[in-house]
Amino acid sequence: MRLSRVAIQFKKEGLYHWLLQPLASRQPKTLGEITKLLNISHSTAFKWNKEYYKEKKEGTLSFNYNSLDWLNNRSREADEALMRAVEKGNSLALKLYYQLTGKYIEKAEYEHKFTISADELIKRALAANRRARELDDRRSPEVLEQPALLSDGIRVDSGQDKQENSQMAAMAVSG
Length: 175
Fold this sequence. Notes:
Layout: H1 5-20, H2 31-38, H3 42-58, H4 67-73, H5 75-87, H6 91-100, H7 118-135, H8 152-155, H9 160-174
Helix pairs in contact: 1-3, 5-6
């Protein structure tokens, strides 16, 4: 199978990027291993290696491939590989297929809980009402301008309702 000019350039620049790495940090470690990874012959790798050092010495070393063009030229092969993976039962391939066809949409549901005091709720409602009146000429139903705060005397349970209940219970028993 003959490779396109773009695919050859892509492999060549893959080798060049590997050669740019410091020896200690190169992965794979040897030229033989990189030839297997790139699926090129040893003679091609040595030829490109020689060209790399010549271009580097002359200062003409450049990377001018367009990966998007390369990918677009290989879309048929990519689609076929994706379908083969789906047929083999690869769940990630199936998910990707559905994403590409618009049949899979990731959804996330978040629940936020917070507590707010009655006084703070009233203040926020009043502020929202004022803002709505500023934005809209129509008047909203009248809302108290001051929060309706309960006095301390009313907030404390006086127990009066318990006395009335006990008196009514006593009357029911005696009657």
